[in-house]
Amino acid sequence: MNKPVALPPVFLWLQRAQCRFTAVIYRLLSWRLIKTAG
After folding, report:
1. Where are the domains of the chain?
2. What's the DSSP call for residue 2?
3. In the Cβ-directed half-sphere of 6, how many Cα atoms lie within 13 Å?
4. What's the pLDDT at 12?
5. Closest by alpha carbon to 7, among 20, 15, 19?
6. Rounded CA gap, 10 and 26, in Å?
7. What is the pLDDT tens value at each position of the chain, 38 positions in all?
8. Phi and psi at residue 12, in whole multiples of 5°?
C-alpha cells in the first residue's frame, strides 16, 4: 500500500482535458470582453 502507484492514463487525460477546457473558457471570455469593448 505504501508503494507509489503510477497514475492511470485516465488521470493524465482528465488533466489535459481540464487544461484545454480552461483555455477554451479563457478564450471565450477574452473574446466577449473584446467584443463588448469594441
Report:
1. 13-38
2. -
3. 2
4. 87
5. 15
6. 24
7. 567 677 688 888 889 999 999 999 999 999 999 888 86
8. -65, -40
| pLDDT reported for residue 8 | 80
Residue with cell 482535458: 17
Looking at the chain, how many residues does it have? 38
**What cell was used for 35?**
467584443
Between the CA atoms of 12, 13, 18 and 24, what dihedral angle is there, to the nearest 10 degrees? 130
Distance, in Å, from the CA atom of 35 to the CA atom of 38, rounded to the nearest integer, reads 5
Residue 6 and residue 35: Cα distance in Å, rounded? 45
Q: What is residue 35's three-state secondary structure?
A: helix
